[in-house]
Automatic annotation (TrEMBL):
Cofactor(s) it depends on: pyridoxal 5'-phosphate
Gene encoding the protein: argD_2
Pathway(s): Amino-acid biosynthesis; L-arginine biosynthesis; N(2)-acetyl-L-ornithine from L-glutamate: step 4/4
GO molecular function, one term: N2-acetyl-L-ornithine:2-oxoglutarate 5-aminotransferase activity
Keywords for this protein: Amino-acid biosynthesis, Aminotransferase, Arginine biosynthesis, Cytoplasm, Pyridoxal phosphate, Transferase
UniProt-listed NCBIfam families: argD, PRK03244.1
Keyword Cytoplasm recorded: yes
Binding positions (N(2)-acetyl-L-ornithine): R145, S284
Source taxon at top rank: Bacteria
Entry's Gene Ontology BP terms: L-arginine biosynthetic process
Protein name (database record): Acetylornithine aminotransferase
Length: 403
């Protein structure tokens, strides 16, 4: 592409760099609009969006149901604060409880990390009432960037410089049920786990790990907190990823795909865990605001009415099988479930693969040096999946070459 054609992108990138605290570096593409699973940058270049704003844009871009729900709600009542209640938040909480199918109670937040802060407050209060003094989380696990959630995050590079943290968190290798068993005693307040580790590289645990965690928590009385911020709301072809394993957590946290792009998260306490926090224990001015709640309801309704869980299983298998069938020296394989996959490489070339994909009109995410994440909108079509699968061998060639 000529310099002229990237003019708007370059100008915007320069202004971005000058205006922002550089926590993200400068992202490689400046997006202007989207429709379905397609997006266009500020210079009009079209891409197939295979990352969906990090597993967030579940209905794709500008889905009519989301547009209608958000527009109607913002034109009716945009905000109440928690001094007043409103119907969309009640409907949403009831809807989430209904999807879980067990008695539960909900706290609505604006983001994933805040959902985990609420879960942590539940766990701390439970621990203090029962002489339980520490928490267990997993190495390489990701739970968010605010200090409570960060204290549970098992990535030293993003965690350690902001410590020490006020709570005692012990980290165990992910997927190792014996290590978990050894770490969890009757002095442990809670175990925080992702049903599949997301930021670590879309890493599913061995079969039975979540059930083992459930048993360990039952035996010791520790709460099991499932961080499903990335894995839920249809991403794996089920409403919740823990449903694959048939193990219910005590506390469930949600965000990303729930609002389809509008900021909303939820901390759900199942059974008794829903009764631990009491009046005055927690709050959020914006949490569960009417517009985000209306968006989440539209997402849940549309997943149901368009049969998207089934669709995710079908096109997810098509994507995964299609990648697995490629024979290429740079391709080690594919892991993950549904429309949440990592293309695993035999060398640390993910940044090159991401760049090659972008040049060819596909947005993917170099998540780890050797792994590229795919988390497209749940509405991605079979034809769109096929277009990426057939382009991938040439992209791998490019990523493998040294020039
Ligand atoms: C993204 C994510 C978070 C943090 O969510 P934010 O909305 O970025 O605060 C926490 N846990 C998991 C598993 C995530 O994927």
């Amino acid at each position: 592409m000529s310099k002229h054609e990237t003019r708007a992108s370059e100008a915007l990138s320069e202004r971005f760099e000058a205006a922002f605290i550089p926590t993200y570096g400068v992202p490689p593409v400046a997006l202007a609009r989207g429709e379905g699973s397609k997006v266009w940058d500020v210079d009009g270049v079209e891409y197939l969006d295979l990352i969906g704003g990090i597993a967030v844009s579940s209905l794709g871009h500008a889905h009519p149901a989301l547009v209608e729900a958000v527009s109607r709600q913002v034109a009716t009542l945009a905000h109440t604060s928690n001094l007043f209640l409103h119907e969309p938040e009640v409907l949403l909480a009831e809807r989430l409880i209904g999807l879980l199918g067990v008695p539960a109670r909900v706290f609505l937040t604006n983001s994933g990390t805040e959902a985990n802060e609420a879960a942590l407050k539940i766990a701390i209060k439970y621990g203090k009432a029962n002489g339980r003094t520490y928490f267990v989380a997993t190495e390489n696990g990701f739970h968010g960037r605010t200090l409570g959630a960060l204290s549970l995050t098992g990535k030293p590079a993003i965690r350690d410089q902001f410590g020490p943290f006020p709570i005692d968190v012990r980290f165990v290798p992910y997927g190792d049920a014996d290590a978990l068993k050894n770490a969890v005693t009757d002095e442990c307040a809670a175990v925080f786990l992702e049903p599949t580790q997301g930021e670590a590289g879309v890493v599913p645990p061995p079969e039975g790990y979540l059930r083992a965690a459930r048993e360990i928590c039952d035996a010791t009385g520790a709460l099991l907190v499932a961080d499903e911020i990335q894995s839920a709301i249809g991403r794996t072809g089920h409403w919740f990823a823990h449903q694959h394993d048939g193990a219910l957590p005590d506390v469930l946290t949600l965000a990303k795909g729930l609002g389809g792009g509008m900021p909303i998260g939820a901390c759900v306490g199942l059974g008794q865990a829903g009764t631990i926090l009491a009046k005055g224990d927690h709050g959020s001015t914006f949490g569960g605001n009417p517009v985000s709640a209306a968006a989440a309801l539209a997402v849940l309704d549309t997943i149901e009415s368009e049969g998207l869980l089934e669709h995710v299983r079908t096109v997810g298998a098509q994507l995964s099988d299609g990648i697995a069938a490629i024979d290429h020296p740079l391709l080690a394989g594919v892991r993950g479930r549904g429309l949440w996959l990592a293309v695993v490489l035999t060398a640390d070339r993910s940044a090159r693969l991401q760049a090659a994909a972008q040049r060819a009109g596909f947005l993917v995410n170099a998540l780890q040096p050797d792994a590229v994440r795919l988390a497209p909108p749940l509405v991605i079509t079979s034809e769109q999946v096929a277009s990426f699968v057939s382009a991938l061998p040439a992209l791998l060639d490019e990523a493998a070459s040294d020039d």
